[in-house]
Amino acid sequence: MFKKRLKALKIPSDIGRLPTTCDKTTFGGFTAEQFKNFIIIYARPCFHGLIPNQYYKNIVLLSESMELACQHSISEDEIHFLTVTITAHHKGFAKLFGKWEVSVNFHMAMHIPVNIRDLEPCPGFWCFAFERLNGELMGYPSSGRR
User: Fold this and answer.
1) d(CA 41, CA 131)
2) In a domain, 146, yes or no
3) Distance between CA 35 and CA 49 in Å, rounded?
4) Residue 16 CB neighbours (<10 A)
5) Is residue 10 part of a domain?
6) Is it the case that residue 54 has pLDDT exceeding 80?
7) HEC per residue, the chain
8) Count of domains in the chain?
9) Domain span holding position 132
């Protein structure tokens, strides 16, 4: 059912494709930008009604957080709501999977609202645009290795 929903979504071509690993249980083949697009665009309609409600609610919190953080402009009220949703997702994830499953990236996400206040909205300072080059660089020799 997940695959069927995923294929049924008609997304503008400029958003980009998801990797073929998307139908698996891991997102290991995703770039950060692909994961962002998956969470913001695909996750809510694809997972709705397919997974237990507490897991779905946590995905929605992550999706709402990323959607806010990815805006090109953001108000102080939206930054406050971003803080609330990131914190709720963080606590929900720890409750669902255990506090030892919470990675450093989850902790770093808690700093996004402060970074937005100090710097500017995320699209102005993040490195997603450069990350896509990582796949191309992997084929180049480095220290005699590939």
Assistant:
1) 20
2) no
3) 21
4) 13
5) yes
6) yes
7) CHHHHHHHCCCCHHHCCCCHHHHCCCCCCCCHHHHHHHHHHHHHHHHCCCCCHHHHHHHHHHHHHHHHHCCCCCCHHHHHHHHHHHHHHHHHHHHHHCHHHCCHHHHHHCCHHHHHHHCCCHHHCCCHHHHCCHHHHCCCCECCEC
8) 1
9) 2-137
Q: How many residues are listed for the chain in this entry?
A: 146
- DSSP bridge pairs for 142: 145
**Residue 145 φ then ψ, to 5°:** -120, 165
3-state class (DSSP) for residue 145:
strand
- Does residue 80 lie in a domain region? yes
CA atoms within 13 A on the CB side of 31: 16
pTM for this model (two decimals) = 0.75
Token match 């997972």: residue? 47
What backbone phi and psi angles, to 5 degrees, belong to 80?
Answer: -60, -45
Side-chain half-sphere exposure of 75, counting CA atoms within 13 A? 3
Residue 144 lies in a domain: no
Confidence of residue 136 (pLDDT cuts 50, 70, 90): low
For 3, phi and psi rounded to 5 degrees?
-60, -40
pLDDT digits (tens, 9 = 90+) for 34-51: 888 888 888 899 899 999
* Per-residue pLDDT tens over the stretch 61-88: 999 998 998 888 889 999 999 999 999 9
